[in-house]
Amino acid sequence: NAGVMQNPRHLVRRRGQEARLRCSPMKGHSHVYWYRQLPEEGLKFMVYLQKENIIDESGMPKERFSAEFPKEGPSILRIQQVVRGDSAAYFCASSPLMENTEAFFGQGTRLTVV
Amino acid sequence: DQQVKQNSPSLSVQEGRISILNCDYTNSMFDYFLWYKKYPAEGPTFLISISSIKDKNEDGRFTVFLNKSAKHLSLHIVPSQPGDSAVYFCASSGSARQLTFGSGTQLTVLP
Lengths: 114, 111
Fold this sequence. Notes:
The complex is a heterodimer. The model of chain A has no long low-confidence stretch (mean pLDDT 93). Chain A is built from no helices and eleven strands. Helices cover 0% and strands 49% of the residues of chain A. In chain A, the strands form two sheets. In chain A, strands 2, 4, 5, 6, 9, 10 and 11 form a seven-stranded mixed sheet that branches. In chain A, strands 1-3-8-7 form a four-stranded antiparallel sheet, with no helix packed on it. The model of chain B has no long low-confidence stretch (mean pLDDT 95). Chain B is mainly beta. Chain B is globular.
């Protein structure tokens, strides 16, 4: 029973390029969350998705960032025209349908913008 | 506006003794609280949780205490082991399912 799978583990992009981060939730989990961790900080919520729906994107920057969770395939966090300040660890988590249950995290994608 | 605060960035404890990690929250709508453990270059791993209808939950060496009136929770690890050395995050959720995290406490258990 595989856990939450994120790829790539490490991603290097030049300023202005696009970054695509992928997340496959645990089997049977229908809720996906993306978090960002800047150096020396805690994890900050970005976006919450269910299949084909964005439920809450209140933590995501209004520009350059987008997320999707299609009917088939992984969830994608897309960052267009990356800047140095986007360098961070991006974590995906998934949880099952019921409320008040823990979310399971992937190992993260470490994005470095050079 | 930090809704979940961990005021101690680091804590050192001798092996075999008790580790107590603290967390305060400000949002009275939070009703579910969790502790996660994180090693470098890995994702957070769930440790233990507590619902707001309880004041204590225990799982092996880990116990979480919740004081709703003080908006305070703590994680007790006893006895502490060197393998417990990691960053510990407390997290909270309410009607919104997403988690709000504290900034973490680096626990070092000295052999």
